[in-house]
Design goal:
The longest helix has 23 residues. The chain is α+β, with helices and mostly antiparallel strands. The protein folds into two domains: 107 residues, no CATH class; 41 residues, no CATH class. The strands form three sheets. The chain has a four-stranded antiparallel beta sheet, with no helix packed on it. 42% of the residues lie in helices and 15% in strands. α4 packs across α5. It is globular.
Length: 160
């Protein structure tokens, strides 16, 4: 009997958290657990370097993610900025798998009692003010009351 050569179906990852992510990310505030999830998912594909910011952006833009949508998204931006495109299909698959990892981790965190409005810390531009701290760069902030320079890895704010 002759075997029919059929292509594998396209892998599509459904994103049920798009609306919540948009609301959580509004004004660049994220619950601390969500930042951990996004950062962990961005590192989940081994040696492939995936930006947590890109991962978060993809999760806030698409209801479902496929390698074709990711390829279109990245190439549109890269072609406009750098005049070139990305063609490595395995890179797009790694990004889709990282998004899937993030969605599964978000589901787990919500099932274990985390809330979208838990404590938050601020991510954003370098001139963000958090209480008496002003961010200098990605690693340092200055206490505006004392002038002391401190590490800027996390700013945890109480829930409002």
């Amino acid at each position: 009997m002759e075997a029919l050569l059929m292509p594998r179906p396209k892998a599509v990852t459904e994103n049920p958290y798009k609306k919540q992510l948009i609301n959580a990310y509004l004004d660049h505030d994220l619950p601390y657990w969500l930042d951990d999830v996004i950062t962990g998912a961005s590192r989940s594909q081994g040696s492939t370097k995936i930006s947590p910011m890109m991962l978060l952006t993809l999760l806030t833009v698409y209801d479902s993610l496929s390698t074709l949508e990711i390829k279109t998204f990245l190439n549109r931006k890269r072609e406009a900025i750098e005049g070139r495109t990305v063609t490595d299909e395995s890179y797009f698959r790694d990004i889709r798998r990282a998004c899937e990892c993030a969605i599964n981790a978000i589901t787990y965190q919500l099932e274990t009692g985390k809330k979208w409005n838990d404590e938050q810390y601020v991510r954003g531009s370098l001139d963000v003010m958090v209480g008496q701290f002003k961010r200098l760069n990605s690693r340092e902030a200055v206490n505006t009351e004392t002038g002391e320079v401190v590490k800027a890895s996390l700013y945890i704010l109480p829930s409002k």
